[in-house]
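Researcher: Let's run the pair from yesterday's discussion. Sequence first, then tokens, for each.
Model: Starting with the first of the pair.
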Amino acid sequence: MAERWGWLFDRLDAEIRLGATSADPDQSVFIGIGPREDVLAYLDGVAHDEIVELENGNAVYVRRSGDDTIGPPSDQTFWDVSASGPGTQELTWQPANGRWVVVLMNAAGSSDVIAQVNLGAKAGFVVPPSINLTVVGVLVSAVGLGVIIVGALGARRRVAPAVYGSPIPSQ
């Protein structure tokens, strides 16, 4: 099924940009996007927080219990894209068919990661329809304005001329 819909993701011209900066400048961070099943298997038995929904723009977390450490995430081969190191780490991902998970960790796999995360998205598929709709809107507005002008000029020509002077006396 993944192959069946792959063309759609190629045509959407969408991309996700993700950046993370550790609160501790000496701490390296890891960000990665991987297939859901592989990431869940990697994190199985490891304590971690999972964002389960967004409520009024704030993340709602569920705490998963387990061990406090895990092997370095950069040693795993299943990541579709990843970035790791000190300072700000950034990655760009082209969405693909399937179920994907975003992971933010300490690069060493230790617990208690604290980082500022930035997320952005580009939706190139929005630009052509928006340009088309703008052009159609301008054309419809021009036609509407033309109809109003023609109607106003035509109405002015049909107005009966005013009669000035005294009324004709009746006999």
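Model: Moving on to the second of the pair.
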Amino acid sequence: MSTFRFPKSERICNKSDIELLFSKSASLRKGSVILRFAFRESLAGESHRQVLIVVPKKRVKRAVDRNKLKRQLREIYRLNKLPEIEYGEGQDRTLLIALIYSGQPKAEYPVLEKQFNQAMAKMRSEIAEGLINKN
């Protein structure tokens, strides 16, 4: 099975998960990319990592630009996501991640990718150090 997939099971669709991310989560920022992340108990048969990609209308007015940024962020996530084992695969918890863009309407793909990778590395180190509540 290829690791370069982004199936629907890895996307956050549940309103309660979204509320959890925006109320009780840790946050970090690298450039134009903001990561909010939290853990919750896993349900049977679900992925151990789920992602929400947000490009706010307040920052990027034109729908064409918002959609392009969302496509770019999805592709960056798909190609650079980390193996689930680093987040505790086999445990009864799911890592919820909100990937939020907060920059100018036009962004370069390599710059976004670099900022995303820096943010993911910082998040991984915070989780490893135990700074984030793992329950």
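Researcher: Give me one sentence on the second I can quote.
Model: The two ends are 29 Å apart (CA to CA).
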